Amino acid sequence: MTVNRRTPGKRLRSFLRDWSLPRQMRGESHKGAAARSSASEQLRPRLEEADKVGTSICPYCAVGCAQLFYAKEGQLIHVEGDPRSPINQGTLCPKGAATFSLISNPDRLTKVKYRRPHGTEWEEVPLDWAMDRIAHLTKKTRDETFVETLPDGTQVNHTLSVASLGGATLDNEENYLIKKVFSGGLGMVWIENQARV
């Protein structure tokens, strides 16, 4: 087994040769070779390995910051702001910058969980079953509580038993459709959006 035993003098000379500050003090430009070191020469951009780049919108608030998603072999490796966006111009707030953790967290729920009435345990159910159940219960509640006219004869055609709270990342077109379907189609009165920035 060979042990690399450099003398303190050799280590100091190597350090002074490799460290940028002494070279800058000797007059080398901090923008050129003086800024490089043997360690920095070996560094590679982490995004260089990406084989696919996609775009998305940050899921956290109503600002709608654009994001770039970098993937390698189908696995997300990085998320950053999209500099082409007129909204965020490549920047992200701390929540948006943490989107990578949101997506890649091993504790993130990826299956639909359902707890039956009076149940104590959560069970996994298919997404189609959950969507059908939500639609069935919404229609059932709406039909049971729908009011066509008030006692004085005023026509209202509404239900006060179902409400909608929209997400912050819904765009204008989605909110328009929600309002039309929920208000006009189902007669819902309580329609709100939690976009508060």
Overview of this structure, please?
This protein is an alpha+beta fold and 197 residues long. It folds into 4 domains: 35 residues, no CATH class; 59 residues, ADC-like domains (N-terminal domain of TfIIb); 33 residues, no CATH class; 52 residues, no CATH class. It is built from 7 helices and 8 strands. The protein has a 3-stranded antiparallel sheet. The chain has a 3-stranded mixed sheet with strand order 6-7-8. Keywords: 4Fe-4S, Iron, Iron-sulfur, Metal-binding, Oxidoreductase. GO terms for molecular function: 4 iron, 4 sulfur cluster binding; electron transfer activity; molybdenum ion binding; oxidoreductase activity. InterPro entries: Mopterin_OxRdtase_4Fe-4S_dom. This is Formate dehydrogenase O alpha subunit protein.
Q: Summary?
A:
The protein is built from seven helices and eight strands, in the order αααβββααββαββαβ. It has 197 residues and is α+β, with helices and mostly antiparallel strands.
What keywords describe this structure?
197 residues, oxidoreductase, three-stranded mixed beta sheet, single chain, metal-binding, oxidoreductase activity, 4 domains, 33% helix, 8 strands, iron, three-stranded antiparallel beta sheet, Formate dehydrogenase O alpha subunit protein, alpha+beta, N-terminal domain of TfIIb
